């Protein structure tokens, strides 16, 4: 019983999707020549968002979980990389309700979902002052003794509306200017689905007129699409138990598609009806698939999980029957427990069970591993990683495949911090279950 309790405790030190110690590990480095196969993948990676200077899409802010492309990459403008020795001074700081959601930032406002007493609360804040502008709430309280209470899924901003997913299944569409309710559904009730052990964690995804959510119901009710204007059901698909990742909209093998990671597999779905295009088995202990995949090229995608599982690059190809998926490489060099990695110039940077690591995208070769940040979160800005540690510190690390280079670190917020940072207009927002702060990183 003691062992079982310890395992559960270890498991829950970290589920957030939208949801944790300062021994320095010696950097590891391995070098190798690039084979023709590696060169082909490297060539395919060039120009993919997150790999270098090729793409800088115009966006209205940090509109989705981990940014407008859901890849943890801030692309708006260069940032300050010389931080004062005593740390950055916050533009503002304030208390915030519980939960593990991140923020979305648009039109000068920040939006998040919090637990306040017995209610889940969607709140809008002024981006530059931290002042609360409006709130919208409903009665719901998700409780979990080991992982913590409160909502997990980061809201989504789309064309002046907020789509918020509560931990107990409540999905609401709100007017972003004043918080007025437009429509609501409970995706668990609609799809006769049981809640997950650690709550609904997937951020809603907007694709054309559809809101894509992951209730995880059986008998064809695992993935659902609602009309973004009315909340009416458009389609339901598959029977998978869901996990804790958020759906993504990608193009693989020439086909625009939904990228979904459920409890047992990664898959591509057609957006028009939810039909299955391809799948790849991805089975992690306790069904804890949390990390977001990374698009590597025209036909490859990276996926990772913790608990000894590791990582893989999956190749998706067209066949006479449709599509097929197979492992291009697979190893245990990057184990993203409940954080997600980022891609820069053909190298993947992420927290391997709490230790920062860099691997080569085309081979999975470990370049280095060093620096303990706990089960925090990170994003990529230019040539640097911004790491929000489990203890609420902010660290600036050079995105260098040759060695680990931490340039600065300071205490940003107090307490256990599992929430993903968000960034727009040069402003970096961080939060946990106790407080929220804003730091100006704009290069002036």
Task: Provide a descriptive summary of the structure in words.
This protein has 444 residues and is mostly beta strands. It has one domain: Methylamine Dehydrogenase, Chain H (7 Propeller), CATH 2.130.10. Helix content is 5%, strand content 41%. The protein is built from 3 helices and 34 strands. The strands form 8 sheets. The chain has a 5-stranded antiparallel beta sheet with strand order 1-4-5-6-7, with no helix packed on it. A 5-stranded mixed beta sheet has the order 2-28-29-30-31, with no helix packed on it. The radius of gyration is 20 Å and the shape is globular. It starts with a helix and ends with a strand. The model is unreliable at 1-14, 19-44 and 46-57 (pLDDT under 50).
- How would a textbook summarize the main sheet? 5 strands, antiparallel
> Which fold does the CATH topology refer to?
Methylamine Dehydrogenase, Chain H
Average per-residue pLDDT, rounded, comes to 90
What is the CATH homologous superfamily assignment? Answer: YVTN repeat-like/Quinoprotein amine dehydrogenase
Total separate domains: 1
Distance between the termini: 57 Å
Radius of gyration: 20 Å
> Could you give the count of β-strands?
34
Specify the CATH class.
Mainly Beta
Shape: globular
Strand percentage lies at 35-45%
Tell me roughly what share of residues is in helical segments: under 10%
Report the total helices. Answer: 3
Biggest sheet strand order reads 1-4-5-6-7
Poorly predicted spans: 1-14, 19-44, 46-57
The secondary structure category is mainly beta
CATH level-two architecture: 7 Propeller
